[in-house]
Design goal:
By secondary structure, the chain is mainly alpha-helical. The protein contains 20 helices and 9 strands. The strands form 3 sheets. The chain has a 5-stranded antiparallel beta sheet. The protein starts with 15 loop residues before the first strand and ends in a 21-residue tail after the last helix.
């Protein structure tokens, strides 16, 4: 039978904000008890202040060096050298200048990727190890159709496949994969690009699993859309292109990847979607309700961090506007496209909740045969452990469909989530389960599926796309937030006329990127407790025992298995170690 609960009315405290249809619904005003602790605020501030001090020391030292070298002549200035000093912030002469930020007197450790970022092996590895690991999919023959957007032929990649092989053979052997950023196509106009001084692309990248089971980039096209079918003005680059053009094409893909990661796979798919579930839970479930008890730990600090994200990232003059590739207009257009499946000259898939469940998402991307894909392997283990845990806890309280039907709080929670005027969750369950959306939620297995998906998204999926940001994006050329020169020189001539460094963020923009990704990568337990250390959320002794087994047996076993695997591989994947998975979206 259902636990006896006396629901307190928190609808006024947790009021829905009326949002545009392209933004997931969220809380109107942050309740006081949902704010950050003083300790966490101080940690935020300390990281920023240390970064500012380090940056100041770096720039003062660089300024004095230029004075000594005679490149800045103070005696010729009327402003004590202020203008000349500020000019240095805008100057990045070489990529090696970035080493200035990673010195003993700054707060930034130089990431390992700085030594290998420009290699094909590192580029391929990051498509499955990096901060957007759930994007790549298996290539289909239709992706490479001769009259399509990406007409890769055997002739084009001659000599890049094993001797005697072909595209058809590699497709049949599950050795070709693709990253397709079509959602970025025509997202801002050329006029807006020039106003921003930033030039995003909508690339498509073909990758090949070589004979050493390494995932390697094979072909890249920078733009998509009706105006870009002509190979003369939109060529396909390969490792046989000039080294500078090939590296520039890879940088364009990496920049598109972090633009998508920041707004879609990170902000929308985890932060904003989970908040919708959190608001409905606080509004419709009493503290004593078993569903509230199992979900509450996974909403820790989510309201607070999302309020910060909306004010600091999405608004005018926010990070996406100032440092991102798409600016304010493009960032919100990308959010619209990803959430609703529609936008200016764009039609795609909206956010469908059940399709984001790990088993379905992996099946749709068809990546079962992709070697060394540790995100997939580790995520499966975490998903199954969460599913088993959720099923055992909910099974203690729901013994039959009648128990579900007779739980008014559960039904009100579900109804608020799927209400097109309130929660707006599409596809809470698959279409064949639609009777439970319009009527009563009657099947325990379906409730388990929903709750498992919520918890996995708030914990493992968020950790997979968040905590590696410093590792991969603090070395700015590896994943620049934006590129600052148009690509017309490559697209029209197949010969670059722009220095590679001139396409990258300047010193000040690079510093902003480094500080941001350092802050967002604040690990457990500084940001939140991990799945291994979070407190037992239950009062009932039987539910407490289930949680103890989940944490101390199943998750500990997964931790040991991943560590054992990592000890024998060249590049350990640590994002989904249970000790590294935050209990919630708290950073």
């Amino acid at each position: 039978m259902i636990i006896n609960s006396s629901k307190t009315d928190s609808n006024q405290e947790y009021e829905w904000e009326t949002t545009p249809d392209y933004v997931p619904p969220h809380i109107k005003t942050l309740p006081k008890k949902q704010g950050f602790s003083i300790g966490k605020i101080l940690r935020f501030q300390c990281m920023v202040v240390k970064g500012l001090l380090g940056f100041g020391l770096v720039e003062i030292g660089r300024f004095l060096k230029l004075v000594r070298e005679g490149k800045i002549k103070l005696q010729k200035t009327a402003d004590l050298g202020l203008a000349e000093g500020l000019k240095t912030l805008k100057k990045l002469d070489t990529i090696e200048d970035l080493d200035d930020f990673f010195q003993p007197w700054t707060s930034f450790d130089k990431p390992k990727v700085a030594d290998s970022w420009n290699t094909d092996a590192e580029f391929g590895r990051e498509r499955i190890y990096g901060i957007n690991p759930a994007f790549i999919r298996k290539c289909k023959s239709s992706d490479l159709h001769s009259d399509g957007k990406f007409p890769v032929t055997d002739e084009l990649i001659s000599g890049l496949l094993p001797q005697g092989s072909s595209i058809a053979i590699e497709l049949a052997n599950n050795r070709l994969y693709i990253s397709d950023y079509k959602i970025l196509s025509d997202i801002i106009t050329a006029d807006i690009e020039d106003q921003l001084g930033k030039y995003p692309t909508a690339p498509v990248c073909l990758l090949h699993v070589n004979q050493q089971d390494q995932l390697m980039p094979l072909a890249i096209r920078l733009q998509q859309g009706k105006d870009f079918h002509d190979l003369k003005i939109n060529p396909i680059f390969t490792p046989q292109s000039s080294p500078e053009n090939w590296l520039t094409a890879k940088i364009a893909v990496a920049s598109a990847d972090i633009a998508y990661q920041g707004i879609v796979s990170h902000l929308m798919d985890t932060h904003l979607i989970v908040e919708t579930f959190a608001v409905a839970s606080y509004r419709q479930l009493s503290p004593q309700h078993i569903l509230f008890q199992i979900l509450k730990p996974h909403f820790f600090n989510t309201f607070a961090i999302n309020e910060m994200a909306r004010s600091i990232f999405l608004g005018h003059d926010g990070f996406f506007d100032v440092t991102g590739a798409l600016g304010f207009t493009g960032s919100n257009e990308l959010l619209r496209r990803a959430y609703t499946g529609s936008g200016k000259n764009y039609h795609g898939d909206p956010h469908i909740f059940y399709r984001r469940a790990l088993p379905i998402a992996l099946a749709e991307r068809d990546i079962a045969n992709l070697p060394n894909y540790y995100y997939r392997d580790d995520a499966w283990k975490i998903w199954e452990a969460i599913q088993n845990y959720v099923g055992q806890v909910l099974g203690l309280y729901y013994k039959s469909s009648t128990d579900l039907v007779n739980d008014p709080e559960l039904q009100a929670w579900k109804n608020e989530l799927v209400n097109p005027e309130i929660g707006r969750i599409q596809g809470l369950l698959p279409p064949e389960k639609s009777a439970q959306i319009t009527g009563y939620l009657t099947e325990l297995e379906d409730l388990i599926a929903i709750v498992t998906n919520i918890i996995f998204t708030a914990t493992a999926q968020h950790s997979a796309v968040n905590f590696g940001q410093y590792e991969y994006a603090s070395w700015v050329p590896n994943m620049p937030f934006a590129t600052y020169q148009p690509f017309s020189d490559l697209l029209e001539e197949q010969k670059s006329t722009v220095k590679l460094v001139d396409r990258l963020p300047d010193r000040l923009q690079s510093f902003k990127q480094i500080v941001l990704v350092q802050t967002l990568s604040m690990p457990t337990p500084l940001s939140s407790e991990s799945l291994l250390t979070m407190a037992n959320p239950f009062k009932d002794k039987f539910a407490r025992k289930v949680f103890q087994d989940f944490q101390n047996v199943k998750l500990r076993k997964i931790e040991d298995e991943i560590r054992q695997r990592n000890s024998s591989v060249e590049y350990p994947y640590v994002r989904l170690l249970p000790s590294n998975i935050g209990q919630s979206i708290a950073i």
